[in-house]
Specification:
By secondary structure, this protein is mostly helical. The protein is about 75% helix and about 0% strand. It has helices at about 5-20, 25-35, 40-55, 55-70, 75-85, 90-105, 110-120, 125-140, 140-160, 160-175, 180-190, 195-200, 200-215, 225-235, 240-255, 260-275, 280-290, 300-310, 310-325. The longest helix has 18 residues, at about 240-255. The protein is globular. The N and C termini lie far apart (about 50 Å).
């Protein structure tokens, strides 16, 4: 209030609101920043991202287009527009923007990978796999290889081929060792512990967490209880979930880390499902969906609960919502 045009103060506020997961306040702070200094064009993108997070395609598009109008010859402008359309299942429009990016930079690996991702999302798996292989052969840098490996990991994960997906996770970690320090590699493993459970390597998952606990100090060690909780959720162990949940929730309260509050909802709803309390589970899933409306996968989980309740019409209704974006 004393310094209404202090850019640094508003930048600090945007960070604080992001940490607290107060997206509406964060959005307003960025708008004020843009008013104070219209030349900070990256703030235009951040405003667009926040509208995208809310599921507001029309307004998000206005800001992404505003950014593109200011940088019509930048690959990033078309990549951002392509990613926006992809997120809402508007694949033909997305392809058009990625092609524009490739016209500016014909060898742009990110644009080519995004085009292949659309084939995966559209169910054209043979073409997607062929495109990924071709792109991988042409990757020249470690960064490009990492991007390609990650796409292949998600490709196999989407197809339910967890073993092959895990192979690419290991390739990612091996590639990271060429350019990143041990802390970054430790964090990659820590964030991926549930993938170890998918392939029956839960013992390795626990070893990774224990090793990370020895290596990481504050503030990174806050990830340790989160990792334990993710493993227990994958293993569907109710008592361990409850005990781990208490520690995670206490950490979030102490740190004011509202951005990670969703994992608390996820754990609570998983407990309801494991106990057969599907109505309560649906209520929590709907709260999570409200927090993260662009994560349409929650509709699958809601649909699963309705199926278990023998309400097949409601189940189909939610599953159809997924197919509109992920056919």
């Amino acid at each position: 209030k004393l310094y209404p045009e202090d850019v640094s103060a508003y930048m600090w506020l945007t960070w604080l609101y992001m940490l607290r997961h107060e997206k509406v306040k964060e959005l307003e702070a960025y708008k004020i920043l843009l008013n104070i200094d219209p030349g900070q064009h990256d703030n235009i993108l951040r405003i667009g991202e926040l509208y995208k997070f809310q599921g507001n395609f029309k307004t998000a598009l206005e800001y992404y287009q505003l950014y593109a109008d200011k940088y019509p010859d930048h690959v990033k402008s078309f990549m951002e527009l392509g990613d926006l359309h992809t997120a809402f299942g508007k694949y033909e429009e997305a392809r058009s923007f990625y092609r524009n990016a490739l016209q500016l930079e014909p060898d742009a690996i990110p644009a080519r990978l995004s085009m292949a991702d659309i084939e995966t999302e559209s169910g054209n798996f043979i073409k997607a796999r062929s495109d990924y292989n071709e792109i991988l052969e042409e990757c020249k840098t470690t960064k490009e290889k990492l991007a390609a490996y990650n796409c292949l990991k998600e490709y196999y994960y989407t197809r339910g081929q967890y073993g092959k997906a895990f192979d690419y996770l290991e390739l990612i970690i091996n590639e990271q060792e060429k350019i990143e320090d041990q802390i970054e590699i430790t964090l990659t493993k820590l964030y991926s512990v549930q993938r170890y459970c998918h392939v029956g390597r839960s013992d390795d998952a626990f070893n990774i967490i224990r090793e990370a606990d020895e290596q990481l100090g504050p503030p990174l060690d806050i990830n340790i209880p989160h990792a334990y909780l993710r493993v227990y959720l994958e293993l569907e162990q109710p008592e361990e979930i409850k005990a781990s949940l208490e520690e995670v929730e206490a950490n979030i309260d102490a740190q004011g880390d509202e951005a990670n509050r969703f994992i608390v909802f996820w754990a609570q709803v998983k407990l309801f499902e494991l106990q057969g309390e599907y109505k309560s589970a649906i209520s929590y899933y709907e709260q999570i969906l409200e927090m993260r409306p662009m994560n349409i996968a929650w509709h699958y989980l809601i649909g699963r609960c309705y199926r278990k309740m023998k309400d097949f019409n409601k189940s189909e209704e939610h599953l159809q919502k997924i197919l509109t974006v992920h056919p």
